[in-house]
Design brief:
The chain is an alpha+beta fold and 464 residues long. The protein has twelve helices and 18 strands. The strands form four sheets. It has a seven-stranded antiparallel beta sheet with strand order 6-7-12-13-10-9-8, with helices on one face. Strands 1, 2, 3, 4, 5 and 11 form a six-stranded antiparallel beta sheet that branches. The longest helix has 22 residues.
């Protein structure tokens, strides 16, 4: 194992990317984590290539960072631009055993892998073991850096998580889970930064990073993956809520506990990292962004247009408060909080996970201090979605009970109920519902009535 993580590195190979290009053009857009769907891939540029296992052996393993070239618009003749950078782990074999059939990328006809088969290596135990061993031994391989702050056993058996995700995950022996970031950008990723800060504060509501993987390229650092304790037996918050709703069970106690957990994380982040005050100019910029998103969504989704004046009033009310001299505190937050970002232990404790923020937003924006109410609004919208998703008739009373319990639980820890700032809460909920309308119209039209119901409520003169 240690031999694999001390090998020399191939940082460039003229025929490597050219030989993979036609296969990746077909395979990459089919991946759940590929962000450029709807626009053709016209080519790739190689950011870095690192050999982890020799390609001329029985099993080769390459770590690639490749930039996909795509037109900015899905129209014929549009100019192609270098786009997102993706992290790939490419396995190389003469032929795939049946168990690896779902991981197939394709058969290479030219270049250094000619005559061999390439595949998504995370499905294979041996490549996954190589990554864990590199983390365990704090390896340095070319530009790849593997760090750890706790001990890692060497005999943990890996298995890939097959559920659809915006990244990829491998569980090691029910002890650790490795989250491998797929779309990477230079800079400090909050999915590592914030859990490390929370661990220093002793916050028990977020699994502390055990180890992490980065790349140092041309003076810039990329966060590639984070290894954390695997929360064995934990229930996904979204799935748990749907199960309880389907059984007709009250979820208020869980929502209250989740509100307390959210407030614990927020208060720990406020201790660990700087806070700022948002005054008139900052709030006007925030409101302008919300208004611009509403205008763009209304142009794209005709069903939203009748509600636009009422929705604008939510933002105008916030701008008016700021103009009167009201200020708000901003700090680091989760940034994409919903039930699916929460886990409940068998003993009833709640954890928050996945601090990456909204991947579509620039990294600098995701790392900006923001109001904690943004996270609260995201969770309130998640309860609303759950109430429409359990398979039966919508359950607005269930959602309202959860929303109230969550805010009450939050207040028990934070000392302030988010509902005592109704103008700010309405503005953030409105902004989130507008995003949902646009997303559903583009990707799941059958779901459009769910956010439209919230839009109808939020656009009313006296929303409840």
């Amino acid at each position: 194992m240690s031999e694999a993580v001390t090998r020399s590195v191939i940082t460039s190979s003229p025929g490597l990317l050219a030989s993979l290009d036609p296969l990746l053009r077909e395979w990459l857009p089919r991946q759940r984590w590929f962000a450029g769907k709807g626009r053709p891939v016209t080519g790739f540029s190689l950011v870095a290539a690192t050999e982890l296992l020799p390609a001329n052996g029985k099993l080769g393993l390459f770590h690639l960072l490749v930039r996909a070239h795509q037109p900015l618009a899905p129209v014929q003749g549009a100019v192609s631009h270098p786009g997102d950078c993706y992290q790939l782990l490419i396995g190389v074999r003469e032929a795939l055993p049946p168990r690896l059939a779902p991981a197939l990328i394709g058969h290479v006809t030219e270049g250094p892998f000619a005559g061999r088969t390439v595949y998504e290596a995370l499905y294979d135990s041996r490549p996954a073991e190589v990554i864990l061993e590199a983390l365990r031994t704090r390896a340095r391989i070319g530009g790849l850096r593997f760090e750890r702050q706790d001990e890692i056993r060497a005999d943990l058996v890996p298995r890939v998580v097959t559920a659809e995700q915006s990244n990829s995950s491998v569980v090691y022996g029910d002890t650790f889970i490795l989250k491998l970031l797929r779309r990477v950008v230079p800079g400090v990723n909050p999915d590592l930064e914030l859990p490390l800060a929370l661990a220093r504060e002793g916050c028990p509501r977020v699994p502390p990073p055990t180890a992490w993987m980065t790349a140092e390229l041309d003076g810039e650092s990329y966060t590639l993956g984070v290894l954390q304790p695997f929360l064995q037996g934990a229930s996904d918050g979204w799935e748990l809520a749907l199960r309880e709703l389907a059984k007709g069970e009250d979820f208020s106690a869980e929502a209250r506990a989740l509100g307390r957990a959210t407030a614990e994380v927020h208060t720990a982040l406020a201790r660990a990292l700087p806070t700022v005050t948002l005054g008139h100019l900052q709030m006007q910029s925030l409101v302008d962004g919300m208004a611009e998103r509403l205008e763009a969504a209304a142009q794209a989704v005709p069903a939203l247009r009748p509600f636009a004046p009422g929705l604008f009033s939510a933002f105008e009310a916030l701008a008016d408060l700021a103009a009167e001299g009201h200020t708000w505190t901003a700090q680091r937050i989760h940034g994409d909080l919903h039930l699916g970002q929460c886990l409940r232990s068998p003993s009833g404790e709640w954890w928050l996970i996945d601090f990456e923020g909204e991947p579509a937003k620039p990294l600098a924006e995701r790392r900006m201090p923001q109001s904690v109410v943004r996270d609260v609004a995201g969770m309130l919208r998640s309860f609303d979605y759950a109430a429409h998703s359990a398979g039966g008739a919508p359950a607005p009373e269930w959602a309202e009970a959860c929303r109230a319990a969550y805010c009450a639980g939050y207040a028990e820890v934070a000392g302030r109920d988010p509902r005592t700032d109704p103008v700010l809460l309405r503005a953030y909920e409105t902004d989130k519902a507008i995003y949902e309308v646009l997303y559903e119209a583009r990707h799941r039209p059958d779901w459009l009535p769910v956010p439209l119901a919230a839009v109808r409520r939020l656009a009313a003169p006296d929303p409840t």
